Automatic annotation (TrEMBL):
Lineage, highest ranks first: Eukaryota, Fungi, Dikarya, Ascomycota, Pezizomycotina
GO biological process, one term: retrograde transport, endosome to Golgi
Annotated Pfam families: Beta-prop_RIC1_2nd, RIC1
Annotated Basic and acidic residues bias: 28-41
Protein name: RAB6A-GEF complex partner protein 1
UniProt organism field: Golovinomyces cichoracearum
Amino acid sequence: MYWPTGAPRVYSASSNKSSKNQTIDSNDEAKQYHESKGDDDFRKNISKFFFQKVKEIKKISQHDPESGSSTPAIQDNCTSSVKSIDQDCQSPHFSTRQNSEEISCSYLDDQPLLSLKVSRSGHLFAVITSVGLTVWQTKPTAILAVFVRSKKSLMSYGSNVSLLMRPDSTIFVILTTYGYLITYTLATNPNNRVYKPLFPKSTSSQTRIQSKSSGTRSRVEDGVLWGPGEGDGAREMSINFRLVIQVDAGAVKALALDDELIVATKEPAAVQCIKWVPDSSGSQTSTVLLSKMDWLPNKTSIIDLIHDCPMNLSAWITSDGKAYAVQKFKDTKNVETSHQMFRGFCFHTPTSSGKFAIKAAINARFSLIAIGCVDGTIQIYTAKDYIGNIPPSHTNKSNVDEYTSGSITCLTYSPDGYCLFVGYEKGWAMWSVFGKPGATSFEDDNTTSQKQKEGWLLGVREAVWMGGGLEILMISPEDHRIWSLEMIRSAISNCYGPANSSRILLQTTSTIAVYRGNDLPAINAMSNESSLWHVAQLPSSYLADQWPMRYSVISSDGRYVAVAGRRGLTHYSVSSRRWKTFADEIMENEFQIRGGMCWHQHILVAAIEAERVYQLRLFSREADLSTSSTLHSETLPAPIVLITPSGDDSLLVYTYDNILYHYIFTQLSGELRIVQVGQIAFHGIVRSPARVRGLSWILPEDESFYDDPSLEVACATVLFLVDGKLVLLQPFLNEESELRYDMRVIAQNIEYYALTKEPRRLTSLDQENGLYISSVDKDNPKTNMVTESCLTNSLWMFEGAEIKGWINFQDVLQSTYSEISREIPPMVSIPVDFYPLSVLLERGVIVGLESELVQRRDTNFSLFKLAIRTQLFIPHVLEFHLSRSDHFAALNLAQKYQNLNYFAHSLETLLNNILTREVDSNTIPEKSLLPQIISFLSLFPQNLDIIVQCTRKNEIRSWNFLYKFLPPPQELFDESLRKGSLKTAAGYMLVLQSFGEMKISHDQFNRLFLKAKNEGDWMLCKELADFLIALDQSGATLCKAMEMLELKSPKQESKQANICSP
């Protein structure tokens, strides 16, 4: 559900040589350079923000070189010593002004970046070179602090290798080539700002066009309209040296957690845990030898390790190519021996050298662990529990070989878990959570990319997600630039609901895009024109303060859109193209969306959290956004996981205390309210409410509870999407007449689903396009049956590689009842070569998107462009019915879509799919499905044209197999001629000629030629003449045919005209 768009922004650091009075002699670990002027003079320095492919010139922020703190020495007597070195070993009187100046200038100019890390909040990121550390702010993207190590430090401890950042970004750790760990602290002054933007060539103070929105707020300050997340400016920060940790055993890899630093050593192979702050007993370190861990084999060492906080799970990769899921006991005091501090289970064992694990990533949202292998494949496993039940899920493989891609360098999941980004030595690729290939750099022209020096296409060293997943930062091997590639995300990934799954809503860093194909004629909805998108820029005032955007939702009729960022919300009318925002910043910052949003007609329902108070608030689109204009507030006892509308007037609310609340919309005293009419507790059924991503319920087709909504809770079947599993909960009464639920997993690896319950009312546009049978006689059982089988009770889901669905979900409910316990009915499967986003039932198509890499010779950069993709699902559903010999259901479905302009093409696709598959698989005639398909096609007047079109689009070897089940081509030709389908008859002439039956068909050919002449179809006459010339290049056959038809050449016509003239 992620697609890259446009060209990446490029950030780099360059610096003028520092003047002598800015260079400070110090006995600290490294020389720091700062501005000695006051804040007023410092703010006059120019910082140019370009959002194209240019370098950004940044000044080094101010900090005190003597403020570095130190901690007592750390000694571990168990295996190896870990020593603290408070300062560099250089003499206090040793001046390195000139050398440091040279190092600083070379560092900022063209030093390759070695490592990239982002903070947990995403507000800053840091990079290192071999000699220094640079801290950047995310928005506005600017350098906040630089620390350049001294030459003496580099000689003593080695150059930088990798960077670690504590999740709260207060401590940085650099691992050096000599195995030292150098730690730094980051100090922040929240009141000071270090940059003032200046646009010297601009003649207008307003540099961006402000979107239309209500309210009086505006973020125009100092003549600048701030962009996304730039409202707070660039904060003042400084890096201070803390200490150097010497690990005698040799640090190989390290992991920075909230409470401690975990270091993997080589000789001996061990894991050392170093707390940031000593505990109450004064202990700060602990060490465990790998040889003492009984779940690890002997003579093995750790080559990589990662940790995921939400799952409290680590993944270790060992030197023998295996991968382990590891947990550390929180209360280590109760652990009898030190080697029991960690518990792990091996879940990946290589079967060959190419399957050795080298990288890992954890997806907490879907409980997945991805393992990158030596051969470039990614093995995905499902973490079902913490006791070693981690079976394989699926495998991702790049569309290029290992030589083209190189080894895997990084794996990282998007924050919502829906996308996996994989960096290679020579490019990168993206997959959806369950394996659908997405955008990739391997589609580029490598020569062009090298010529244009586009490192982001040539290889990735490290990558991190920013802005809630709407941007990704990359660094390339041997490159000093940082690439920021913007992403487009589907709204269903962060705000799950029926409206977002039926209508396509896309979100970028600063815009939303609404797909208009649902409201256009059917044939226009299948085009790839940009006019199908309604694009709106988010209000600049809201975007500047509340970036990144976290939630977006569209109404079921497509008229309204709501967007929520860090705090507050804003909503938009598609017809008027106007936004509404809070005029008061205090009101906007008073709450944040937690649990999503949904629309009920023109009423926006928002699940909010305000100072640990959890509420549902109703806002009217017709009223201004303010606290006083809130229609209704409903307080709940626990945080909300998700909200979703159901039916015409119901609202389902699921909370973290595992309770599903049922509300209805009603008018009380002339005002709209929501009233709770029931609730269901799922204690012991749903283990982790936070993992629930989607929710629906299905009511039985019984009118007994229509007048009393409180009865719906006891008879509703609940559908959950948990960790990619579609779980069905059906109510029943036990022997004590207590309500219980029977749970059954009905589908696996589901990224999203769409449940269609009721047919919507037809618009005049739908009736003009023949989307349904225009006249339905309720008293006629035949037409009534056709109406009931119009996919209105179907369930569609995307399973990573293909769309699957149940045509009638009521059959699934009947089969899953505990009294019946039948097998679940089979699903229809529709393979797609793009990422599908919506199933348009009324049009019979699946709509999706894909990114295309564009490289032009007239530009010096590459970019990604978004393309709409569509695919008919009608042929696949018809094949599903016919393969089960359910001709009545197939006929009902065909009658539903028979008035569409592309219905004949759907039938042709059906025939072509079956023919191609059976010819390729050498299906014997007795088991062929073609006889049923041909018999079904004979019910429609286009059948002759469908057959001949399918014939001409296939190879000759397929013709013999097809015509085993058809009448002779001569009969098909005669029938086409009788019906007046001249072009169809001409198509069968080609078949006759290919079968060698042309000699017996001259008569029919002359009849066709004569009929085309009499009807004035001169284009067909020309094609027939060309056909005869191809058969006899001498022209004798053509002349003979013209004589028989009494057709004269132009010369003869001219002579006759001259004779007849007076």
